[in-house]
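Follow-up to my post from last week.
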Amino acid sequence: EAQVTQNPRYLITVTGKKLTVTCSQNMNHEYMSWYRQDPGLGLRQIYYSMNVEVTDKGDVPEGYKVSRKEKRNFPLILESPSPNQTSLYFCASSLWGAGSYNEQFFGPGTRLTVL
Amino acid sequence: QKEVEQDPGPLSVPEGAIVSLNCTYSNSAFQYFMWYRQYSRKGPELLMYTYSSGNKEDGRFTAQVDKSSKYISLFIRDSQPSDSATYLCAMRAGGTSYGKLTFGQGTILTVHP
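User reply:
Got it. Predicted complex:
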């Protein structure tokens, strides 16, 4: 089944404890992206990657890191999480191309709570 | 001021009603306009997208873009309870900004039988 998977789905952690949220897709998509969703603010893009070893900042990159060493994986790293990073996180992927970027396939989401 | 503004609702309509969802934006570089639907506890999924100005129809759904007014709309005809979801508009520019996507806040829609 074609899908985007995220792990973990739920995570409660404490301030300053480094964590990684993994994202993997099995559709051979070139493009991958991370978003956070907060009430009243909608989805906001954190980072995106057009292909392996190519990443760029979205609208809210502060406090996050990403890497794209393999086509299928795009982990999100929080080196020193803070309570304002408590949110619902989505990973998405799409094929490469002007029209293709419009159809992004989203993962099921990761609910992160930072105490 | 946000680049994309969307009335969060919530919007509650009876089954069979015509629903109108709207977004305004400020960035004149936006060229691609999308509508995503998000069911509770799920990730968003694409409903339809439009390039530049004009209308696009897909079954009960019609998307309209008016670039001169920086205003986009999604119309749902003969709404069904299964249409109950959060609807998110999204936009992006072309050129070197292909990968950057900006979403509205989302409108919560409930269609009651």
